[in-house]
Amino acid sequence: MSECVLYEHRGPVGYLTINRPKALNALNEEVLLNLENAISLINEDKRIKVVILTGSGEKSFVAGADIAAMKDMSPVEARDFSRLGQRVFRSIETARPIVIAAINGYALGGGCELAMACDIRVASEKAKMGIPEVTLGVFPSFAGTQRLPRLVGLGYAKEMLATAKKVPAEEALRIGLVNHVVPAEQLMEYCEGLAAEICQHSTAAIAYGKMSMNAGLEMDMDRALEHEATLFGLTFSTEDQREGMGAFLEKRSPKFP
Ligand code: DAK
After folding, report:
1. Are 69 and 184 found together in one domain?
2. What whole-number distance in Å separates Cα of residue 208 and Cα of residue 94?
3. Are 64 and 29 in contact (CB under 8 A)?
4. Residue 159 falls in the annotated catalytic set
5. Which one of the listed residues 77, 113, 170, 228 is annotated catalytic?
6. pTM surpassing 0.70?
7. Which is the most buried residue in 77, 168, 172, 231, by most CB within 10 A?
8. 119 lies in the same domain as 188
9. Among residues of the chain, what percentage have pLDDT more than 70?
């Protein structure tokens, strides 16, 4: 993996860092491909239960897709770039482990879209989020026009699209764009606390539950319920189900691998 995306793991927690601080971690093709590669390695590595995704440096999570790389694209190249971003972000959204975005600064354009593809968003109080693409004569196309309305509602999403405003962390919290806002110096510690809590529970059950939520939102209620029942049934094929229920009945804490 190249230096533009750093990956390490400590025990069950994987740390992914977008590492182009001089360009405020802007996303080019190399970053996107490396991110995709890292997610696929993580999916294969059963030791990893949670991933924390952040940006290098003090200032930015990700300041968007790389404007310099996009400027002279042909329409076909732009479509392919958009498809690449959509594919990579979808692989994050559907990754086996829970992915926490530690939003340490600007999360703009593609950076806001990346954060939205993560399962849980924690922002530093210095973070600013927005989709300012209309100032560049384009609109967000790494699924931002799909995920933002689902998260904050259509009205606010359209306002963010049209005004290009950079939403401060506290406002992002109020509209449901992030789950938590914490002081900058506590951001990683807070995310690690969340990760530790998640690691105590059944990884398989979390993965099936995540799958059910992701897929169910795209279905009508009857199909979503059928899908949920099928995945619930599958949890009974796991050791975790036997351990979890057995431990409850034996009045002890469960031991999940
Ligand atoms: N791309 C490339 N370089 C960037 C960048 C970006 N998105 N954002 C910042 N940089 C670079 C700057 O050019 C500068 O580089 P040097 O001049 O030092 O070489 C360096 O990072 C530091 O930035 P600033 O000097 O501007 O720093 P400031 O603190 O003054 O301002 C800022 C920080 C985040 C407010 C400002 O950099 C800024 O406004 N950046 C752009 C934010 C933005 O508009 N983001 C949205 C990007 S567009 C599509 C696919 C995808 C998308 C659209 C279409 N298709 C395929 C059709 C998605 C688009 C986006 O995400």
Report:
1. yes
2. 11
3. no
4. no
5. 113
6. yes
7. 172
8. yes
9. 100
